[in-house]
Amino acid sequence: xxxxxxxxxxxxxxxxxxxxxxxxxxxxxxxxxxxxxxxxxxxxxxxxxxxxxxxxxxxxxxxxxxxxxxxxxxxxxxxxxxxxxxxxxxxxxxxxxxxxxxxxxxxxxxxxxxxxxxxxxxxxxxxxxxxxxxxxxxxxxxxxxxxxxxxxxxxxx
Length: 157
Known about the structure:
The protein is of the alpha+beta class. The protein is built from five helices and five strands; from the N terminus they run H-E-E-H-H-H-E-E-E-H. It is elongated and about 75 Å long.
């Protein structure tokens, strides 16, 4: 859904609407989870990447997209950061497995932004994610081929 912006709107309203459109329509998955890890924002890119509609995702736990074997570790870190501990992920691009609605595991890269309330306490995390499964598979295949070539070269010496 595209919203037209009138030139008679205030600059702040224009900016807020433009930002909303940018977030909603971005091809990368953008989501926001509250202090408890409940999804509060889910854009079109998240729908495409994970297969869950916005209606299905809003109000659900982040467990929706976290592979089961990684959940305990994820929640330990998440709750520690929400309690005020520093996050080591501030400016880094992270690579982790994610889960599609159909159960397929994805290779994803993402960055996070820790959001704070008026008292400067952590209140939410925004994440921007991208599916890098195809690149990950190509790199894995290249590493395999390189290993094979190195083994062949070693065998001919």
